[in-house]
Amino acid sequence: MNLRKYLVLTRAGIVEKLYYKASLYINLLGNVIFLIIAYYLWKAIYLSSGTTVIKGLSFEDTMIYVVLAVAMYNFMEVFLVWEIGRNIQSGKIILDIIKPIKFPLYMFFQTSGEVVSNFVAAFIPTVIIVSVITHGRIEFGLHILFFLISMVLGVLINYNINFFIGTVCLYTESIWGINIMKNVIVSLLSGVTIPLTFFPDSLYKIISLLPFQAICNIPLNILIGETEGIYAILVKIAFQFLWFLITMFFSSWFWNKSIKVITVNGG
Amino acid sequence: MKKFKFYMRIYIKILVQDIKSKMSYREDFFISVIGIIFTNLAGFISFGIIFENFPSLGGWNYYEMLFFYGFSLVAITPMQCLFDNNWNLRGYIYTGDFIKYCFRPLNLFFYYISEIFDIKGLGQLVFGVIMLQYSWIHLELGFDFITVIELLICLPTASLFMIAIMNLAAATNFFILNSGYVMVTVFKFTDYVRYPNNIYNNVIKNFFRYIVPIAFVSYFPSRVFLTPDDIPPIVYVSPILGMLFFYISYRAWMFGASRYAGTGS
């Protein structure tokens, strides 16, 4: 595989992202405001509860988790379902399919530019700020390397799920409904809405087997040191890798099957 | 008055057209309804999980919190159903299609907004009404002629605030090209409508009262029913404030539209 032709797409994505600077700033400002609101919301929740530790999480633990989970999901989410769905409706997709590049790979590298620039511009500063505010609760050691591997796997799993759902749009012509269902399920079951530890135990057991928590929850727990020890970390990463293979298999199988029945109007 | 009748007639005509065209995409409609139900279920589940671990929030118990939540869903519905076309504004301005709205002998804002009626928003209304009723019974609030009048004043006022907030956010599309972020960001605030305003610190509290006034969408009007002996004074003037705020948002929207120059296509 000649990687260079793909990396051109990544670069184009970064350049495009930097072009709309106003959007970038507004997005950043919005994120900061949400973090402040989340802070006071959880503070109030903990104050009302009367105890300082709930299900093993102190207020500070919860805050670190919530802030990083939101930041992480934000940098991964690139509205791929929208993109594919709209391209199907307008017929533009046919131009992408006939390119001498596999369409799933083409879309991946096209959106990767946005992921990379979001990661650098939003996620890294957030991690540094959290680390400074909490006086080094996030340690910078060997596990950062594992975190990066785990995070890349998370991005890939998220991409596969998105691509699978995007392919569904070939059949339904409904983008909004499909997209919102996916968003709701992923953000609830990946731990972005509320930390997964707060779920009832029986529910938590089921959720921890699903691929959604491999998107955010696993890399995050490695980063904040919740998953300790090389062995435990490697087990989690193996789990992610397994889900990566499964989701990739299903999304490419579904795509190859669907492409044969595609009907596109115009283009 | 004659003008009002004229506009009503036009509105109904456009509405019928829109529903007809929606019905030709029946699949899309059903999937969207399921999507709305999913969203509300997820909101309710996360609400339930938080309350399983924490029995009260800022002095409000579970049923009172449910009341705020239900009230907010009902109050948001008119914005969701009637003003949904604001979401397409970014695309229309970017591609230049917005020009088609400028050539009608009608009020531009009226014509633009009336084009879309979002039926799926009604799913949210059902959720809201059920929650409101459920908490109403458990709180033993009582129901008589006065409460009906209060509801008839408080709900539309709350809706006006919500509509005005989104109108203002949508108007930014005229000034910042290809930026949906303002609308998306402001819309995300509506997730916090369901939490009582008194739990925040002063800065956020006032931010939600006077900058992005979501406190008026659920917290303040709900106080009329939850704490009838301790209603914040500002609640009594909120109907006027709501109308004023809506008018301002309308003027801002129209001002933005008047600056619209087209793309030349």
TrEMBL record, chain A:
Keyword check for Membrane: yes
Source species, domain of life: Bacteria
InterPro entries according to UniProt: ABC-2_transporter-like
Signal peptide boundaries: none
Transmembrane segments: 24-42, 62-81, 115-133, 140-160, 180-199, 206-224, 230-250
Any Pfam family the entry gives: ABC2_membrane_6
Transmembrane helix listed as a keyword: yes
Keywords for this protein: Membrane, Transmembrane, Transmembrane helix
Protein name per the record: ABC-2 type transport system permease protein
Automatic annotation (TrEMBL), chain B:
Keywords: Membrane, Transmembrane, Transmembrane helix
Transmembrane regions listed in the UniProt entry: 29-50, 62-83, 141-162, 168-187, 207-225, 231-250
Alphabetical list of InterPro entries matching this protein: ABC-2_transporter-like (IPR010390)
Keyword Membrane: yes
One of the Pfam families matching this protein, by short name: ABC2_membrane_6
Protein name as annotated: ABC-2 type transport system permease protein
